[in-house]
Amino acid sequence: MSHAVIIGCGVVGAAIAYELSQVQDLKITVIDFQPPAQASTGAALGVLMGAISHKIKGNAWRMRSYSIQRYETLIPELEAITNRKIPFNRQGILSLCLQEDNLADWQKLAEIRSSQNWKLEVWDVAKLKSVCPQVNNDNITGAVYSPQDRQLDPTALTLALVDASQRNGVTFKFGVTVNGTLTSARTAANSCNQLETTEGKITADWFIIAAGLGSSLLTAQLNQMIDIRPVLGQALQVSLKHPLGDRDFQPVITGDDIHIVPVGNGDYWIGATVEFPNDTHEIPPNEELLKQVLTGAIAFCPELTSATINRTWSGLRPRPEKRPAPIIGKLPGFNNILLATGHYRNGVLLAPATAHAIREMIISNDS
C-alpha cells in the first residue's frame, strides 16, 4: 500500500485528502500546525466565479469549469456522508457594469459561454432595476447575471471535507509542525521518503505540499524555493432587519472588485481588500481600505447604510511571485513531491480541480 502525506489543511489540502481517500490501496496522512481552515480559507468569501470570469480557454478555464460542475455533486455528497449542512448559494452571481465597462465585451463573452454550454445573461438598467431593486447607482449601465456560478461557506466546506475524509480512513494530525524540512533519504530516482515532524519521522511514497504561504519555507529547504508572498484581504459581516431586494432572489452582487454576499437572515459578507506588504515586508490591516470597501458596497446598494457591522476579519492569501497562480505539479528535481499551492484568491474555487489533478498525477505514476 502506498502512503501519501499532505502538508496543509486549508480547503485545498482537505479537498485533496477527500479525493485521494477514494483511491484504493492508498494510505493518507494530513498534517498541519493548526486546526483546519484557519489561514486564507477561513478568511475567504467563497465566491465561485466560473462562467462570469474572463477565462475562456486553456487550463485556467478548464479548472474553473471543472470545479463549478464538481461542486454541484460534491456539496450534496458531503452533506449525505457527514450529516453537516454546507451553506451553498445556488442563485448565481450578478456582476454590475459601470460606465467604463463595455457591454459589447460582455455580450461577446456570453456568446462564447453559450458555445461552451454555459449561460450568461446581459441585462440593461431596466431589467436590473426590476429584478434587483436594491441596486441603485447612476453609474451602473447594466449587469451580467451568471446563474450557474455559486457561493459557499469555505469553513463549513473544509470541515465537511475533513469529516468525510476521516470516515474514509484518512489520518489527520493537527498541532504537528514540519521540523524544518523534508530532510529525507534522497534516492537516485530523485525522490524523498521521510518527513521530519514534531511527532517524529513520517515515511511515505508521496508528499503533497498544500501549505499556502508555508510552502516557500518547505521548498526552500529542498533547494527549490517556490516564492509565494502574502496579500492581505479584509472583509466584514453586516446585518439588516430584512434581506436586500427580493428575499427569494439573493445572488452574490459584485462590482468594482467588491462582493456583497448574502449569508441568510438579512446578513451579508462584504469584501474584500487587496493589500500588499510594505517596505518592511509587513501588512498591517488598513482600516481606511476596509471603509472604502463598505462605502463602495453602500454606493451599489444604499440600503446597506442602515446595516449593523457584526464583525470584521482578515487573512493572508498566498500569491506566487512572478508566475501565474496556482502552482500545481511536481517540485523540480523530485518525482514524488507534488505542489498544490499558491492559489492566491481562488483557493476555494479551484480546490476540486486541484484535488483531481493531484489524484491523476499519483494514479498515472503508480499505474
Automatic annotation (TrEMBL):
Residues 4-360 form the FAD dependent oxidoreductase domain. Keywords: Oxidoreductase. One of its GO terms (cellular component) is cytoplasm. SUPFAM superfamilies: FAD-linked reductases, C-terminal domain, FAD/NAD(P)-binding domain. GO terms for molecular function: oxidoreductase activity. InterPro entries: FAD-dep_OxRdtase, FAD/NAD-bd_sf. It comes from the Bacteria. This is FAD-binding oxidoreductase. It comes from Hassallia byssoidea VB512170.
